[in-house]
Design brief:
With 306 residues, this protein is an alpha/beta fold. The protein is built from 10 helices and 12 strands. It folds into 2 domains: 2-87 and 274-291, NAD(P)-binding Rossmann-like Domain (Rossmann fold, 3-Layer(aba) Sandwich); 89-266, NAD(P)-binding Rossmann-like Domain (Rossmann fold, 3-Layer(aba) Sandwich), CATH 3.40.50. Bound molecules: NADP nicotinamide-adenine-dinucleotide phosphate.
Length: 306
């Protein structure tokens, strides 16, 4: 079995070493233009030339959960695209989102600002019943996040494409139930894949349906959010704030207003990082399952785009 590795912005040697250890007997090589066609590819943001040359690939294993960038390219007809399922990301996402929710709910940013001024301040405790958290996307990451939030007794709502039943989470599904989900939500968490159906879902019309004083947490993809609509609703007071980890252009350009907006907390796409060891183990297991003709979890449906 021949495996080619083509990962942009990634230190590739440790991936090659890890894959060689996990797949003894396989030929594992870093891709170079003109390299022989492999059986499988391990990729992150590969160039179109790579996909055109590797026309006979059986599996394209993406070293992330989101495949939006890959699905915009022309893929070999023979290949199935496989994404990471969790691989250590869901616990990171749960801690990141719970931190953002709790930081907002407990007004910790306000306390920190007071402490920085040497001020011993008091704020009236808030009722968590008044802070229902709505999670858009109830997949591998969204479900873990929803369950973690329930541990802190927040009312939790969820929205997905197909109907779900999750203990303690009030579930909504499909475009017909989006408004009912939004009007009940005070803290919105986006964990959708980026597809033609979900791009711009956090636009002015939808954000305006959230409860007054709502807070927005985007940990999915920058293009889920219409940047200027968020700023307009923060500035007119409908929204209380936002925690943004992902952006339409990354790194976030120095002149972008998000950097300096007093109601926006920016983090540099760090909510759930790809963990190399866990990812290599998962990719190797899936590659071997594919070779044996067994079902492989996390195969992307090209029609849905995720
Ligand atoms: N910021 C970061 O560091 C980071 C790290 C990892 C991942 N991510 C992002 O997180 C996303 C989610 O990851 P995941 O592993 O949880 O994905 P997943 O398991 O594929 O789950 C996606 C969820 O979104 C729902 N969905 C998809 N299209 C929808 C639509 N049009 N309307 C309503 N719901 C829709 C799906 O509904 P069904 O259940 O009905 O299919 C599913 O519940 C990734 O695509 C990636 O972009 C970000």
């Amino acid at each position: 079995m021949r495996v080619t590795v083509c990962c942009a912005n990634t230190k590739i040697e440790p991936w090659l070493d890890g894959l060689r250890a996990a797949l003894p007997g396989a030929t594992i090589e870093a891709w170079q233009p003109g390299a022989p066609v492999a059986d499988h590819a391990v990729v992150w943001a590969p160039p179109q030339q790579f996909l055109d040359e590797q026309a006979g690939l059986k599996g394209i294993f993406n070293i992330g959960a989101g495949v939006d960038a890959l699905m915009k390219l022309r893929l070999p007809a023979s290949a199935r695209v496989v994404r990471l399922d969790d691989a250590g990301m869901s616990v990171q996402m749960a801690e990141f989102v719970c931190h953002a929710v709790i930081r907002h709910f407990r007004e910790l940013d306000g306390y920190e600002a007071d402490v920085a001024q040497g001020r011993w301040s008091y704020r009236k405790p808030r009722s968590r019943a008044e802070f229902p958290v709505g999670v858009m996307g109830l997949g591998v990451l969204g479900v873990r996040v929803a369950r973690a939030l329930r541990q802190f007794d927040f009312p939790v709502l969820g929205w997905s494409r197909s109907p779900k039943t999750i203990d303690g989470v009030e579930c909504f599904a499909g475009p017909a139930q989006l408004d009912a989900f939004l009007v009940r939500t005070r803290i919105l968490v986006c964990l959708l894949p980026l597809t033609p159906d979900t791009e711009g879902v956090m636009n002015r019309a939808n954000l305006a349906k959230l409860q007054p004083g709502a807070y927005v947490i985007n940990v999915a993809r920058g293009a889920h959010l219409v940047d200027e609509d968020l700023i307009a609703l923060l500035d007119n007071g409908h929204l209380a704030g936002a925690a943004l980890d992902v952006f339409r252009t990354e790194p976030l350009p120095a002149e972008h207003p998000f950097w300096r907006h007093p109601k926006i907390a920016v983090t540099p796409h760090t909510s759930a990082r790809t963990l190399r060891q866990e990812s290599i183990a998962q990719i190797a297991a899936k590659m071997l399952a594919m070779e044996r003709g067994e079902p492989v979890p996390g195969v992307v449906d090209p029609g849905r785009g995720y």
